[in-house]
Write a structure and sequence with these properties.
186 residues, six-stranded mixed β-sheet, mainly beta, four-stranded antiparallel β-sheet, Immunoglobulin-like, globular, 12 strands
Length: 186
């Protein structure tokens, strides 16, 4: 009687290990860099971009993500950028999925889980030319509305954070950089 139980346990462990071994994305294996800013924020005196914003002065916060592609390995890959924004208390405030494509491919609407209609793809910007290895840096910017939202209505001021990664067609999320912080003040 012990052998069938051990066999079932071994089978479950093997299935779990095989599922975990699947790499959900090709892009996240490179690097990601996140820059947080606002077009409406006053320019800082010290030349470094600020990550603290007065909600009385801005309309939105821009979350710009730059990553290195893996060259030809990205062919046929349809990734979705996932941006998760957390409140000062650590609660998920908003998650945005941004399907994207590259300039050499036509943008189209893509069906995403949880969205009733297809979502238009954003075309990634070339952030740096391809190097000798054929890899390029790509950039996508996502706006987080601030003015007129629950952030200002309910006074959700303090230290916020953003987690960025990629989702594959099966909805699996792979973070490509640790949480990045910014502050919102009245």
């Amino acid at each position: 009687m012990r052998h069938p139980l051990l066999l079932a346990l071994a089978l479950l462990v093997g299935l779990a290990a095989g599922a975990a071994a699947e790499a959900p994305t090709k892009v996240a294996a490179g690097y990601c860099k996140v820059e947080i800013g606002s077009a409406q924020a006053p320019a800082p005196d010290h030349g470094k971009p600020s990550t603290s914003f007065s909600t009385a002065e801005i309309l939105d916060v821009t979350i710009a993500v730059t990553w290195k592609s893996r060259g030809a390995a990205d062919d046929g890959f349809e990734p979705t950028l996932a941006v998760r924004v957390f409140t000062p208390r650590g609660y998920l405030y908003q998650e945005r999925q941004v399907p994207f494509t590259f300039p050499d491919r036509p943008a189209r609407g893509r069906k995403l889980a949880g969205y009733p209609l297809p979502v238009d793809e954003q075309v990634a910007d070339a952030a740096a030319p391809a190097g000798a290895d054929g890899k390029s840096d790509w950039r996508i910017a996502v706006a987080l509305p601030v003015a007129g939202t629950t952030i200002t209505r309910d006074g959700l001021y303090g230290d916020w954070s953003v987690e960025v990664g990629f989702q594959d067609r099966k909805g699996r999320f792979t973070s490509c950089v640790g949480r990045q912080g910014f502050s919102l003040t009245p």
